[in-house]
Amino acid sequence: MTSASIGVQADRPADLDLVRRLRDPALLLVPALAFLAFIYLLPLIDLIRISVSGPSWSSYFERVFAIPLYWDSLVRTMQISVTVAGLCLLFGYPTALLIHRSRGLAQALIATAIVLPYFIAILIRTYAWMVLLGRNGPVNKLLVSIEILSEPVQLLFNRGTVLLGMTAVLLPLMVLTIYSSVARLDQSLTRAALASGAGPIAAFWRVMLPLTLPGMGAGFLLVFVAAIGFFITPTLLGGPGDQMFAMHITQQADSVTSEGFLQALGVVLLTITLAVVAVAGRFLGFEFIWGGRKLTEATPGKTDLRAADGSRRSLGASAADVIGWPLLRLFGRLPASCGTWTVRIMGGLVIAILILPIIVVMIISFSSASYLTFPPPGFSLRWYEQFFSDSNWMRAFWTSLVVAAMSAGIAIVLGASAALGIVRSSIRGKSAIMLLLVSPIIVPPVVLGLSLYSLFLRFDLVGSVFGLAAAHAIGGLPIVVVILSASLQGVDARLEQAAAVHGASSLTVFRLVTLPAIMPGLAAATFFAFLHSFDELVLTLFLSSAELKTLPLMLWGDINYRLNPVLAVVSTLEVLLVVAGLVLARPVLATSRKAT
């Protein structure tokens, strides 16, 4: 045997080891992580750098907290966010129970009434409340007709409408989070409590409530974190005394002399958000962000979902013991029908709050009147004709389609690769990687838009279609990863292993085995990533230009300066788009429920 052949044989184990590493599914995470590092983490780091670049690192922050306007706004933001989260919890829990206790067609209709508004743009839903509560809206007309008011009054632009609008926008998030917790309960525990002589109230308080406290906490924190960065709803429904902290960031963004101070405002909002998430993650686990349970890291080629930690259940039971017995003695005397009717009434009220504004807007889109009024004096297609014949609206519509299609393409390619890497690899730290992948959904959009603006200026991407699509893909990526991870968990990994054993390449296995199995999830993820970009407004406000206007940007301008039924046409078309998407997503939603 020659020395050359000995050298070749010595190299073969190393070559084989290199091939194995190159075929490791964990490498599929690299494109998504590199994308987020450049277009998401780097701008946020740069935002922090600019905020501490004053005469001293804290000079801009000292100014933020020294000016009463910003301090009062920050306190107001916390108060409004806590109030909204509390209202969502109060009305969301009975609604989740109503979905859980319903059966058949009734359950499907109730769930649809909750899910449908969740996917409709915040701008559209806020506009619906402006129509509903306007001087010529149905609420004013109803109050006048039953003689509570003698004439229509201004119901908008106050704290009450801000709370109502934000609660209505965020209620679906609370309901879906609590319902996922309720649906995973072992129903035999409640039946055992009833069989042991406990009444319905006691069984609920001592069994169901403690076990769903983690879900309630997750819902409260998700709503609170989302409310902190709210900008659209308070701007449109609130008055001068209802300005939230995010609104000051957008106002300061127009000033060329605010660099450093503007970034400090963003860092303050980002720090509060991350601090809340960190505290929540300490007690609930960071998995509450993506609605799952902790990812198993020890089993190669497989990702299981572990049951909730027992300490959290005992914590819930202890809390129920401390605060529950006085209430239990008070309500234990009530008949079981009281609880049933409470759930039905509160759930019905939530459904009405979510659906009625959308229905009113859809009806107004067919109005023959030249102004917003309900009910319409007559029906006509004039506003649809005006929308489709207006070159500005149609240009914005086609721009939104192109940007959304490009954004969805970027999100799907990167998200599908990352989902395969998460589910099929045995890499350590899966939960940390998943947290990074979905973390864009917890960063306030105004902070993300502000941080991206500096990066896009540097690379001449402001006002470009590709730049806007890439920015929108930051939010579409978590949607794709979560949906496709759930779909992949429903695919038996042994089928892929069997195909590989019989000689199929990794690409062939994916094309012939994995892809057909996850196709419903892939279609749903594509649609929701597309819809996320199509509806995106806040990032667009920072990154668009006078020549690049999307449909939400046109809608935002008209809502601020003039209200007419053309806006109702845009809203109606969006609702129809969402309905089509939900029909498409039904298979993957069913698969996801089975997987969890």
From TrEMBL:
Protein name in UniProt: ABC transporter permease subunit
Q: Give the record's membrane topology.
A: Multi-pass membrane protein
Subcellular localization, per the record?
Cell inner membrane; Cell membrane
Coiled-coil intervals, chain numbering: none
Name the protein family: Belongs to the binding-protein-dependent transport system permease family.
The residues that cross the membrane are 26-45, 78-99, 106-128, 162-182, 203-232, 261-284, 349-374, 394-420, 432-453, 465-488, 509-531, 563-585
Q: Give the InterPro entries listed for this entry.
A: MetI-like, MetI-like_sf
Q: Which residues form the ABC transmembrane type-1 domain?
A: 74-280, 397-585
Q: What SUPFAM superfamilies is this protein classified in?
A: MetI-like
Gene3D superfamilies linked to this entry? MetI-like
Record key words, sorted: Cell inner membrane, Cell membrane, Membrane, Transmembrane, Transmembrane helix, Transport
Please indicate if the UniProt record lists Transmembrane as a keyword: yes
Q: Which organism is it from?
A: Bradyrhizobium diversitatis
Domain of life (superkingdom): Bacteria
| Main localization, broad class | membrane
